[in-house]
């Protein structure tokens, strides 16, 4: 079945550590996105990529980094510079940047700083 | 700027009640509009969408009509079930020629609880 797979589902990080969240899609989509979800805040865009080897900062990119070396993969690294990393992280993909195309979401990764 | 405003929750209804979740937007150009649903501990799933004025999106008994004159896209369902309990997100997407990043812009979500 085609879809988006995020791993792990739960992740615990000690303060000062970098962690990487995995996102893989087999939908052959060009565009991929990372969102952060906090209670009562909706979803906020961290980074997005419209094509392999290219990505752009979203609204809250500070303290995060990404890479897009393969079409199907878009990992997100939460660095120690991110001051409040505890949140639910959602990866999404879409066929392109056409305004009427829907986005498909993974199941999310819940990151907790301990 | 571009934004989506949803009614604040939580919304609590009895089974078979009528549901309305209000959504209004501010946008440059002519956006597409979406409703997504999120069940506990999961990602978002597309519920319905509309891409131009007066379009009606519908799915699983839910409906929403793209109202350009009132910049609204209210979600409705005639008879809710316990299984509809979830968080509902309204979202828009702007064409890139209007300076968009090409991503979805979301409202803050409305939590719906349906009691038997």
Give descriptors for this structure.
heterodimer; A: 114 residues; mainly beta; seven-stranded mixed sheet; 11 strands; B: 116 residues; four-stranded antiparallel sheet; 12 strands
Commentary on this structure:
The complex is a heterodimer of chains A (114) and B (116). Chain A is mostly beta strands. Chain A is built from no helices and 11 strands. The N and C termini of chain A lie far apart (35 Å). The model of chain A has no long low-confidence stretch (mean pLDDT 92). With 116 residues, chain B is an all-beta fold. Chain B has no helices and 12 strands. In chain B, the strands form 3 sheets. In chain B, strands 2, 5, 6, 10, 11 and 12 form a 6-stranded mixed sheet that branches. Chain B has a 4-stranded antiparallel sheet with strand order 3-9-8-7, with no helix packed on it. In chain B, strands 1-4 form a two-stranded antiparallel ribbon. At the A-B interface, strand 4, strand 5 and strand 10 of A face strand 5 and strand 6 of B.
What topology emerges from the helices and strands here?
The complex is a heterodimer of chains A (114) and B (116).
Chain A: E1 4-7, E2 10-13, E3 19-25, E4 31-38, E5 42-51, E6 54-57, E7 64-66, E8 76-78, E9 87-94, E10 104-105, E11 109-113
Parallel strand pairs in A: 2-11
Antiparallel strand pairs in A: 1-3, 3-8, 4-5, 4-9, 5-6, 7-8, 9-10, 9-11
Chain B: E1 3-6, E2 11-14, E3 19-21, E4 23-26, E5 32-38, E6 44-50, E7 56-59, E8 62-65, E9 75-77, E10 86-93, E11 104-106, E12 110-115
Parallel strand pairs in B: 2-12
Antiparallel strand pairs in B: 1-4, 3-9, 5-6, 5-10, 7-8, 8-9, 10-11, 10-12
Low-confidence stretches of chain B are none
Mean pLDDT of chain B: 92
- Count of helical regions of chain A: 0
Low-confidence stretches of chain A are none
Q: What is the average of the pLDDT values of chain A?
A: 92
């Amino acid at each position: 079945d085609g879809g988006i797979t995020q791993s792990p589902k739960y992740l615990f990080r000690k303060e000062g550590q970098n962690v990487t969240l995995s996102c893989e899609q087999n939908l052959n989509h060009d565009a991929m996105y990372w969102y952060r979800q906090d209670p009562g805040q909706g979803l906020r865009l961290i980074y997005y990529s419209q094509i392999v080897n290219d990505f752009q900062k979203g609204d809250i990119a500070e303290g995060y980094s990404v890479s897009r070396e393969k079409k199907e993969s878009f990992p997100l690294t939460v660095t120690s510079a991110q001051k409040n990393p505890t949140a639910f992280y959602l990866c999404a993909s879409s066929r392109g940047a056409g305004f009427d195309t829907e986005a498909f979401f993974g199941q999310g990764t819940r990151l907790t700083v301990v | 700027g571009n934004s989506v405003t949803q009614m604040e929750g939580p919304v609590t209804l009895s089974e078979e009640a009528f549901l309305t979740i209000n959504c209004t937007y501010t946008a440059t150009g002519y956006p597409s509009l979406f409703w997504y649903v999120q069940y506990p501990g999961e990602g978002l799933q597309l519920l319905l969408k509309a891409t131009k004025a007066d379009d009606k999106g519908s799915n699983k008994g839910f409906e929403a009509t793209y109202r350009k004159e009132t910049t609204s896209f209210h979600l409705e369902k005639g008879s809710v079930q316990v299984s509809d309990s979830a968080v509902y997100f309204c979202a828009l997407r702007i064409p890139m020629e209007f300076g968009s990043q090409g991503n979805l812009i979301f409202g803050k979500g409305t939590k719906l609880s349906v009691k038997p």
